[in-house]
UniProtKB/TrEMBL annotation:
<dbReference type="InterPro" id="IPR029069">
    <property type="entry name" value="HotDog_dom_sf"/>
</dbReference>
<dbReference type="InterPro" id="IPR050563">
    <property type="entry name" value="4-hydroxybenzoyl-CoA_TE"/>
</dbReference>
<dbReference type="GO" id="GO:0047617">
    <property type="term" value="F:fatty acyl-CoA hydrolase activity"/>
</dbReference>
<comment type="similarity">
    <text>Belongs to the 4-hydroxybenzoyl-CoA thioesterase family.</text>
</comment>
<keyword id="KW-0378">Hydrolase</keyword>
<dbReference type="InterPro" id="IPR006684">
    <property type="entry name" value="YbgC/YbaW"/>
</dbReference>
<dbReference type="Pfam" id="PF13279">
    <property type="entry name" value="4HBT_2"/>
</dbReference>
<protein>
    <submittedName>
        <fullName>YbgC/FadM family acyl-CoA thioesterase</fullName>
        <ecNumber>3.1.2.-</ecNumber>
    </submittedName>
</protein>
Length: 154
């Protein structure tokens, strides 16, 4: 079988300091009325954050393999505004708003065109393999700071 461009997974990317991750709502994301089930927004947010880390040059798999640890959500606040529906094309826009020694805060929005459907503020902390908070590597902190916006600035 020959390789084609369709064999590569989709990757989002940065538009300035905002990371953009596009997705389509599939049947598996919805309830019987064709409305996205509320818990699936967490999956959308998680995919976008993971892709943002990759786009920022942070290799989560290598960090785990090397025993550095992994990010875990320590706090999340979500506001649902309008429902997403089957076959909607959405964009999850993510911005780092605060960087601390062991964690960072990310503001995320799920958009359908210009319409805001949901937004979340997420704090992700770097944890050791034993589950204890640890300082982020200095180069990661620098990468986050280079893409960070002021808290509350959208």
């Amino acid at each position: 079988m020959t390789s084609s461009p369709f064999d590569q997974p989709y990757r989002g990317g940065f538009a300035g300091t905002e990371h953009r991750f596009a997705l389509t709502v599939y049947f598996e994301d919805t309830d019987t009325a064709g409305i996205v089930y509320h818990a699936n927004y967490l999956r959308f947010f998680e995919r976008a954050r993971s892709d943002m880390l990759r786009a920022a040059g942070i290799d989560q798999r290598a960090a785990i393999d090397e025993g550095l640890g992994a990010y875990a959500v320590s706090e999340m606040a979500i506001k649902w505004r309008r429902p997403a529906k089957l076959d909607d094309d959405l964009v999850v826009a993510s911005r780092v708003t605060n960087v601390r020694a062991a964690s960072c805060t990310i503001h995320q929005r799920v958009m359908r065109g210009q319409e805001l459907l949901a937004e979340a503020t997420v704090t992700a902390a770097l944890l050791t393999p034993e589950g204890r908070p640890r300082r982020q590597p200095a180069d990661w902190v620098e990468r986050f700071r280079s893409i960070a916006t002021e808290e509350g600035n959208e």
